[in-house]
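Known limitations

Structure tokens in this collection are predictions and should be treated as such. Users comparing against experimental data should check residue numbering before alignment. To illustrate the layout, the record for Acetylhydrolase is reproduced below. The input appears on top and the generated tokens appear beneath it.
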Amino acid sequence: MPIIMKTLSLLFGGVALFSATAVISTSVSAAQTLYKPFPADVMPSLSESGEHTVGVRTIEVAYADKVKDIAGNDVERKLTLEVWYPASSAAKSATYVNETRSGQVFEIEGDASRDVPIAKSDSGYPVIVISHGYTGYRTLMFYLGEHLASHGYVVAAIDHTDSTNKDVNFAENPYSGFPSTLLNRSRDQVLTLNSISDNEFFKDNVDASKAGVIGYSMGGYGAVSTVGGCYAFNDQTAATFTGTQDPKVAALIKDALNTCAGGEESSKDVLPAWKAALALAPWGGQHQLFDVESLNNIKVPVLYVAGDNDDISGYNGIKWLFENTGSEGSKLLTVKNARHNVAPHPAPKEAYGSEFDLGSYIEPAWEVQKLNAINEHFALALMNCHVKGLKDDCEYLNVSGSSAQIPVGGKKPEPWKGFDDRWALGLEMDGK
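Generated tokens:
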């Protein structure tokens, strides 16, 4: 098996990624709305929007100095960020233009207002960083950005250069961005936090000493490192996941990859600003690409969210990460009968033309909007509890076992806190 296909097989569990050459669409249809008006009773309570009007703006950031790429070359690296924030006024709803994995361009309508003034804050808004998977785009979880901003956070989501749908041509070279992804995920998350604290528009109204990170799939791989997990590639995994067949090159790549906390040498170098991490279907545990001792020494509470049929990150791999994460407040939320797509927004209509596109959005057994609402609920509980220090909201995290309310001794248990009776089916929570 050629090295590139071997790598793809390991990453995606042997699932066929595509069967035909992609057709690239450059036309954009009218902005579409992805969400239905479900009654509040059927959704978890913390998925309700907050009191703040939400603004959004796109900014460009760059590393101050050239950085090393996977081959050891000095290169400039820039990122595009989508940043949501509490706003002092509203305007026309913002739209987000993206493309599917096969290059189908689409436009979706959000609830935020583009480039409106930020609402002043004497104490400063905490900062949340959102990091997409391989591939993806910065607004893949725009619902979380808008939701958390409505509750008083500044939320910066990253377009990880070399690792977006736009950057990677899956029809011809599907794995081209993976080496950069392995190297830069955590580094980009740290740069993003620092960039928000330095940005002229935001710096006077944020408290970047209080921060959280949310990562999906490869973004979760980065988030675990950002809060203290050190990578532990060996010569074989370094070669496999970067496509090199030269043992000497693999050894150099291994040394480049094996860092902690945004490219640092030690897990002791975690930025003290990080107070919580949400790892949605994080990749890497199935190959044990993290040093166990460093996971044991993570101090930041991590909420892992995993489908018990995840065939990309592997449910057992995510459980391995959770079980080895040492922070007392860490938890594992299992979504029963879900695979890997526990985080993306609902599929745009352009994705319905092929399984290749649609397969990166939908779940076989779940309504995606319900999954989004569950993520909103627990993300807000996590950040309010550990970033803002709102202890009452910690109670939303202190649920355990099954959410199914299975009768015990003829008596039906109360629903999980924040869920209406009968509406939390399909979830399990494990804690330390």
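For this record: DSSP finds ten helices and 14 strands in the chain. The chain has one domain: 3-14+25-431. Please report discrepancies through the issue tracker.
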